[in-house]
Write a structure and sequence with these properties.
By secondary structure, this protein is mainly α. About 50% of the residues lie in helices and about 5% in strands. It has a 3-stranded parallel β-sheet. Helix 8 links the parallel strand 2 and strand 3.
């Protein structure tokens, strides 16, 4: 895994590398319906899935791969996985907690296929996959209910966030990402939990990624 860091640093010593753009806006540009979000896999799912863009790693993998390919063809060196909210805390809203590992592994595998296909087309310009880890929909620094009289109230604990991120990291690494991208850090304590989980995963599994 240290070879990957060295490889990226070598490229960066020679030129700027380009990260892809937003996944969600590209998905919404397709104007997907509830049926599109569900696909065959979640046709009879208990909750509405519209706007759960991460579920499309399982329900619409072809669409997601085409989006990655479009970014790669536009010049991106790195594509980020469709896994921004694929954690147990966020996926609880959609009753998809049991699918979290699979969602992340699938999202990583889709991006891996697209990146590897483009690398074969342009072997002088290798492409890479960044596993996207978003901030979840809960905040550690501020309560979600400003009217709660208990100033110590928080909707989630640090340990719960670490557990959620650890599962997400496991899925992304299993799917073949090159980089772990902790992104959109509107709460620095959430980010600390994410980085803590990443480091714990590295130590437990004897690996290390940029």
């Amino acid at each position: 895994m240290t070879d990957m860091r060295h490889r990226l640093e070598q490229i960066l010593s020679e030129r700027i590398m380009i990260l892809d753009g937003a996944m969600g806006t590209m998905i919404h540009a397709h104007k997907p319906t509830e049926e599109d979000y569900r696909g065959d896999r979640f046709r009879d799912h208990s909750k509405l899935l519209r706007n759960c863009t991460e579920v499309m790693a399982l329900s619409q993998p072809k669409m997601i791969e085409e989006i990655h390919t479009a970014y790669l063809e536009a010049g991106a060196d790195i594509v980020s996985t469709d896994s921004f909210n694929s954690n147990a805390i966020s996926m609880a809203d959609y009753d998809l907690v049991d699918q979290v590992f699979e969602l992340n592994r699938a999202a990583a595998a889709i991006a891996r296929r697209a990146a590897d296909a483009m690398t074969r087309r342009t072997p002088d310009k290798p492409r890479f996959v960044a596993g996207s880890l978003g901030p979840t929909n809960k905040m550690l620094n501020n309560p979600s209910d400003p009217n709660n009289p208990d100033p110590s109230y928080r909707p989630v604990t640090f340990d719960q966030l670490v557990d959620a991120y650890s599962e997400q990291v496991h899925g992304l690494v299993s799917g073949g990402v090159d980089i772990l991208l902790a992104e959109t850090a509107f709460d620095t304590l959430n980010l600390k939990a994410c980085l803590f989980a990443i480091e714990g995963y590295f130590e437990a599994h004897g690996i290390r990624l940029p």
